[in-house]
Structure formats: C-alpha cells, structure tokens
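Subject: Predicted fold for Transporter, 287 residues

User T.R. writes:
Posting the sequence so we have a shared reference for the thread.
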Amino acid sequence: MDRSASGWINGLIGVIIFSGSLPATRLAVAAFDPVFLTVARAGIAGLVGLGLLLVFRQPRPAMRDLTPLAIVAFGVVVGFPLLTALALQHITSAHSIVFIGLLPLSTAIFGVIRGGERPRPAFWAFSLAGSALVAGFALAQGGEASPLGDGLMLAAIIVCGLGYAEGAKLSRTLGGWQVISWALVLSLPLMALLTVVYWPPSFAAVTLPAWFSLGYVSLFSMLIGFVFWYRGLAKGGIAAVGQLQLLQPFFGLALAASLLGETVTPAMLLVTVAVIGCVAGARRFAK
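User M.O. replies:
I've generated the structure tokens; pasting them so everyone works from the same file.
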C-alpha cells in the first residue's frame, strides 16, 4: 500500500472514531457532571499516553514545542470536550452534529492564520455562507433550540479548529501520535487534580452505558482517534486527508439515530449537506 492510500485509510478510521464522540458524550453527561467527565477522560487518556511514550522511549519535546503543545491541549484536550459536554446538557447530539460541519472550515481558518496564507475571496464567501446556514438553522428551531447550547457548540468548534491546525502543523516535526500524547501528558497534572476535586460522592446511579461512554471518549475520542488522524495527515497530506472531516456529520447523525434513538429531521440533513458544500468550496479556494 502506498503512502497516500495509507494516509486516506488512517484518516477515515480517525473520522469514524471521532463521529462517535458526541453521541457517547450525550450518554455520559446523563450520569456524570460535565466538568468531571472532561477532566476524567483527559486524565485516563493522559495516563495511557504517558505509558505509550515511556514504552516507545520517545524523546522529550524541545522547548519551542511546549507552546504549540499547550495550544493543542487547550483546544482538543480541555476546550472541545468541556464545551461539548456542557452544550449536550441543553441540545441533542443530533442537533450538535450539524455544527461539526463547520469544523473543517474552522481548522482551515486557523491554518490560514498560522500559515500566513492569502486565500481567494471565494474562500470567505463560502465561509460566510456556511456560518449563515448554521446560524439560521439554530434560530429556525424555535422552542427546540437552546441559545446557550448552540453558543457552546460554536465555541467548541472554534477551539477545536485551533487545536487541529496547531497539532497538524506540529505533527510534521514531532510525529503524529506523539503530538496528542505529549499534549495529554502536559495537561495530566491539572486534569488529575481536578478529577479528585470533582470526584462525585457516589457512582451508584451511573449506568453501564454511561461507563462505556466514559471509556469510549477517554480512549477512542481522546487518544486512539488522534493516533489514526494525525498519522493520516502526516502520510496523505493535511489538506487532502483533512477533507475526510466532511464525512463526520453523516457518520454522527447515523450513530445518533441508531444508538440513541434521536430524531434526525430532514432539515438537519439538508443543513448538514449544505454546510458540507460550503466547507468543501471554502477549502478548494483556500490557496
């Protein structure tokens, strides 16, 4: 298998794993406090990441890599998990998945900012169109919508795009799985402390699906997914393999409907497809 094909396969596996994050988080926040869920999943993944780094005897990152790693940790270790967990207390995972359609665009925008690129005007036209579609969808939901939940999801997309772009850039020199592992280790002391602080008085009411969901978001969403994702970006190219993010809303909506029994309305599907079209157009004119 050539390097490009391997990159696409690894990237697709990563996207499929990430697609289960919101439905799993939705199940988990029904039993766990959102802050505890965020710090516990980061703490569990951090311990596993530390073990991997020790087993494979990875050298410590250079001093110049610490700031980018801190940005990755802020975006994908703390920011996105916490903001989505808080948002999913107010909206369904099916509703939140529509916002994921903006994630590739958020990543591209931060890639432009960090890389100093000058995209053509068409890029910004598609960007504004996609944002308008998402905002219009949220407003059109009326009583079913939650301004707080929608705002938290938009914030989650922004910080996640920042973390993705910074991690993709850093993976070129530090290595794919090493980036997320070191970011997790960097945040591990604080996450461990906060896990103790927010430790619930009892787990008696926690159901088996909630425990499985905690395990999924800790190991797969927080670590294993990034192993495949950054490997795919490194082998197949960030711009090319990054297009696979456009499939994530489709996978997520299917999981929300099949596993959680949530209603996926025609409007959700229509907006998701339209947003994906806008993101695809924006990415095409990013250079």
